Amino acid sequence: MKTNPFAGRCILACIFAYLLIQIYYLSYEIMPSAQEGPLRDIVSLFLIQSVFFAVCIFAVFVLLLAERFRRDQTSPFASLLLVDGEGKIKKEVLLQDLHSFLVTGAKKGKQVFVEQIQDPDADRYLYGVCNLVRGSWYFEALSESRPVGLRRGEENVVYRMKEGIPYQLTASDVIYADTYKIVMRQQKKIWREQDGSDPM
């Protein structure tokens, strides 16, 4: 049976808070007044157990934060394919080490290029920019004089992207720039929460 990750984290947080309160109470209220003997041994045992479980829960939260940071910095796609009007793959760009790229075109002709955002070619027309944000790619068209299209999933309609609006890309989306297509290749295995969100 699937559980809600947010509910599980709330329960852990409550247990962690309870353990902290218990550690404080045992350390500063019970322990000083406990006499030497069995009572003090029992209090010490409870204190050690509380500290142990609190450290374990804290470690879980640290691992969850580290995992979320890793996912936010990791592309959900392995690469993109730049396909020309004849269906030929002109270029494959690996995305694992990229956090942004530009889609540009020749000012004369219909060639389309994928360039790194740090070193764009000044002699090319700029269709738009694609940025990796919190583990998802977003494409933003930068001019309406040369439109960019987007086909969602299995739909047969190509939507014209509006200038300045970021569009989140999924594995089945196709970007159209002039006669070229940009197709995303999804990772074989990548962990994502079922609802696509992370409330933490």
Number of strands: 11
Note the run of SSEs as H and E.
HHEEEEEEEEEEE
Helix fraction? 25-40%
Shape: rod-shaped
List the helices and strands and how they pair.
Layout lengths: L4 H26 L7 H35 L4 E7 L5 E6 L5 E7 L5 E5 L7 E10 L2 E6 L6 E4 L6 E3 L5 E3 L5 E4 L2 E7 L14
Antiparallel strand pairs: 1-2, 1-11, 3-4, 3-5, 5-6, 6-9, 7-8, 7-10, 10-11
Helix pairs in contact: 1-2
Structure description:
The protein has 200 residues and is an alpha+beta fold. Helices cover 30% and strands 31% of the residues. It is built from two helices and eleven strands; from the N terminus they run ααβββββββββββ. The protein has a six-stranded antiparallel β-sheet with strand order 2-1-11-10-7-8, with no helix packed on it. Strands 4-3-5-6-9 form a five-stranded antiparallel β-sheet, with no helix packed on it. β3 and β4 form a beta hairpin. α1 runs antiparallel to α2. The two termini are 21 Å apart.
